[in-house]
TrEMBL record:
Protein name: Dabb family protein
Cleavable signal peptide: 1-21
InterPro entries: Dabb, Dimeric_a/b-barrel, HS1/DABB1-like
Keywords per UniProt: Signal
Length: 138
């Protein structure tokens, strides 16, 4: 029994982004299931071409902001413009922050027709893009 408890403690330590849940108790055997207690963050940063009109940047912002209403796999969304005083932005001015509940949801989003259509709106004005995805506790 001590080795079982130690194994469970090590499991909790080694897999901090998961929660264990006792699902059944049969003949003194406990069956556990692992449930993910984190979310997938999708961070997208844009650097617009020099001379891009504010009206065109606004059009891109509005088009990106419309995606959560068109793609239900987006669990949450926010965006903003850089205001860091550090000067390390490398010309990236806009950050869009999406949350997915699973990699499967992200896999639906990436090739989604509305996401692809957004790329067509963004394309003429985009100088560079940076995308980072990571798992985070909610």
């Amino acid at each position: 029994m001590k080795s079982t408890k130690l194994a469970l403690v090590l499991l909790f330590i080694g897999y901090g982004t998961f929660a264990m849940k006792a699902s059944t108790l049969n003949n003194n055997n406990i069956n556990f299931t692992m449930e993910q207690d984190s979310v997938l963050r999708h961070v997208v940063m844009f650097k617009f071409k020099e001379g891009t009109a504010q009206a065109d940047i606004d059009k891109v912002q509005e088009a990106f902001s419309a995606l959560p209403s068109k793609i239900p796999q987006i669990a949450s969304y926010e965006w903003g413009t850089n205001n860091s005083p550090e000067g390390h932005d490398k010309g990236f001015t806009h950050c869009f922050f999406l949350t997915f509940k699973s990699e499967a949801d992200r896999a639906i989003y990436l090739p989604h027709p509305d996401h692809k259509a957004f790329g067509g709106i963004l394309g003429p004005y985009l100088d560079d893009v940076m995308v980072l995805d990571y798992w985070s506790k909610e």
